[in-house]
Amino acid sequence: MVWFGTNYQLVEDVSPKKSLVICTLLAVPTSLIAFYATKIAYDQLETAWAVKLFGFSIGYLVFPVLTWVFLHETPFNLKTITSVVLAFLIICIQVLVPDSY
Asked: Over pLDDT 70: what percentage of the chain?
C-alpha cells in the first residue's frame, strides 16, 4: 500500500490527480495497518529495533518487485540483488537469533 501511495505517480499514463487521490485514500488504511502491525510484531519480536529492522526489510523485499512490475525498472543488478539479500538476512537475524540482554 505504501508503494502505491508514494510511487504510483511515477507509473506511465497515470495522471497526477489520480495518483494524489490514491495516495490520500490509502493514507489512513496504511497508517492503521502499520499501527496494528507494529503492536503485533512487537509482541512477537519483543524489541522496537527488531520491529523496525523487520519492517524495513520486508519493505525492501517488496519494493523491487513492485517497481519492476509497474515501472519496468530491473531489480537484476548487483546493487539491488545485494540489498535484497541483505534485507533477507536482516529478517532471518531478527526472527531466528534470540536477543541477549
From this structure: 99
